[in-house]
Write a sequence for this structure.
């Protein structure tokens, strides 16, 4: 799945399949300007920060069990969001510090370090990487991902895929080659 925020005409948090199909709103009320999003892949939670409502909130992948982690004026200066173990990590754009926030109760906020011009944060650690099973976009014997000549996107499950073409090309009638 692909998760993303939108604060155009109607602010929301959404999810869809990697090929863009099955687009679903998972948060569409009491939300104004969601600017960062982080996933807990193990427990299947979506965290986001809303700089207009000055809050960090969480829901499960279906948009249920919504909770506010923390609220306050300091939220409007946050950008980027990552989750690892018991904490959320974010950047305070006001003083360029990396913050660590307890994700269960919003307390235990600590400034960890300062960085110049940071706007995004990611945690790279082996435990944050989900185990990969074989999937429909694996390279075929000719080295083509999922048998697609350009781009292979996972669809509704790891067993299904959709082929797409780079800009300037169109998908052939075989559904795999680009012309």
């Amino acid at each position: 799945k692909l998760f993303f925020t939108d604060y155009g005409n109607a602010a929301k948090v959404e999810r869809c399949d990697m090929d863009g199909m099955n687009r679903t709103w998972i948060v569409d009320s009491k939300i104004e300007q969601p600017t960062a999003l982080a996933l807990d892949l193990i427990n299947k939670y979506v965290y986001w920060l809303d700089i207009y409502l000055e809050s960090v909130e969480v829901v499960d992948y279906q948009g249920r069990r919504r909770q506010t982690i923390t609220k306050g004026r300091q939220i409007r200066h946050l950008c980027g969001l990552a989750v690892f173990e018991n904490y959320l990590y974010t950047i305070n754009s006001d003083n360029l510090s990396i913050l660590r926030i307890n994700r269960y109760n919003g307390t235990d906020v600590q400034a960890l370090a300062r960085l110049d011009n940071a706007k995004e944060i990611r945690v790279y650690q082996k435990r944050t990487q989900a185990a990969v099973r074989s999937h429909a976009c694996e390279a075929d014997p000719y080295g083509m991902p999922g048998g697609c000549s350009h781009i292979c996107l996972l669809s509704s499950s790891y067993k299904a895929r959709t082929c797409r073409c780079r800009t300037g090309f169109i998908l052939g009638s075989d559904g795999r080659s680009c012309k």
In short: The chain has a mean pLDDT of 89. The chain has no helices and 13 strands.
